[in-house]
Every structure is written in C-alpha cells, then in structure tokens.
Predict the structure of DNA polymerase III subunit delta'.
Amino acid sequence: MKFENIFGHEAVRKQFDELVKNKRFPHAIMLCGEDGIGKSIVAKEIAAKLLNKTEIKEYADLIEWKILNDKKSISVDQVRKIIEEVNKKPYEGNNKLIVVHDMDYMTIQGQNAFLKTIEEPPLGVYIILLCQSQGRVLDTVRSRCQIYKLNRLDEHEMRKFISGTYNVTNEDEMRTLLAFSDGIPGKVDDFLNDKSLKEIRNMVINAILNIKKLNPKDIVDAANQLSEYKKLWREICNYFVLYIRDALVYKETGNKELLINLDKIEDIKKIASQFSMKQLNRMVEAVNYGQSNLETNVNMPLTYVEMLFKIQEV
C-alpha cells in the first residue's frame, strides 16, 4: 500500500513524519483508538518510514505480535518471546520495529515483565503498542510511552475512503455505509463482507416487524439466537436503534431520502405504520436499557429476553 492511499488521521501522521524526519521519534509509543479505526495501518506507515521504505508491506525488520488464536490475552510467556525478538539485531538496516497489537489484553504479569524493555529498548529498536482502551493498560506502562489517540474519521474523510477503497458511487449505498461505519473505516468492510452482520440485520428487522405476534417461547428463542453472536452485541443494539430511528423519521416526514437503511425501505414503512411515535420512542428506551445491561455484563440471553418483552409491551 502506498502512503497516499491511507485515509484520515492526517494531523497525527504529519506529526509522526516530522519526528521521523528530524530523527526524534520516541523509542516507545502507544496508539489508542477503537477497533477498525486504522491503528495498525498508521503503525505500519510509521514502521516503513523508520525503515526508510516507500510503501507499506511486510519487512524483515517489522515484527508484529498478536494474541494467539486459542488465547484471550497476551501471556507473560508470549511477552518473554517478544523481549527476545526486541533484543535481536536488525536484519537489514539499523532500525527495527516491534508492533504489539491488543496491548490492553496483555496480562498484568506480562505488562510488568515488559516494563524494562519498553523503557530501554536497544538502540534502533522502536516499540509501537496498539490498544482500544488505555484504562486496561498499567499506569507504569503508559508513563513509559508517548500516547496518541486516533479519532473517528469525519464524513469527508469517510467518503474518500469508501469511494477510493470500494469504488462506491451510488449515493444511497454511500449513505448507508457512512451511517453503519460511524467514522470507523474497518466497519465498512465488516458491513460489506461479514456474513454474521447481514444475518443479524435480518434477524433484528424481523424481530421488530413481528414483535406483536411473538409468544413467550418465540421471544426466548429469538433472544437465544441473538446471544449466539456474543461479540456483536453492540452491533445488534445499534441495528435495533437505527431501524427504529428510520421508522420515526419516515413516520414524521414521509421522506425516504432521510433514511439510513434504504435497502430496507419497505420494512421501514411497515414499522412506521404499525407503531405510534410514542411507541417507537419507548422502543428506543428499551434498547438503550438493554445495551446498558450488556455493557455491565448482565446475563446476555436474559437481557435480550427482557429487552424484547419491553419492546413488545410498548
């Protein structure tokens, strides 16, 4: 990938360019931002420039570490292997880059074991830590890094990214992708290619359309189906809210041009005709209540059952 094909984060990337150019790049930095925001792309751009390369691709002196497939965190044993790699000499030039993904999922023991290496890596070795939440990273680790936060892209940047990456020219499709990505580039690819998200969208719209017909067993079954997508509960709640939001907008204005889910226009019309403005607003409250419980790790199937019953009772 050429540097000019990277979209967004221009201010912080320009700052990194100056640091590299003036040979003042910190020995350890932490890039923070939501999943899909572009942390790994920015990290690889930094690495390429520190290695005096002209594009992003695999290099012998760019080493990436991720959580192992069968694990939920980066263990202290894996950290010891990272430290071994840090202390090996570069293969090609004078510099070497170590990029650690999901630093906020490194165990406390692992973070403590990594402290000295982060503070004093060998000359020419640069460590880039990627994380979603600083709050899960030890203060002692954060204090040894310069921290940079990557923010969501604005609409102009997202339009450039979507049209440039996916060649989307249809305005209806563009608006749908803008709404579902919410400024996070990685969500565009998920929306277009993730089969699970397409299944969830259909499940959610069907649940809203048929909510009045569902008996208690149907609601429990629907809740269990939603619970199978354990890691996608935010997306599930978001889809509920976006469909209901569209129904509210269409009911009030009758203007389909203002809708997000334009590919579901006929279903949106049916929802708008079935429920009053008051009922639709109470549905949103029910979903927000469910999301609040999910955020605090309340039992997932039980939360969905309660949420669906609240929606049914509006």
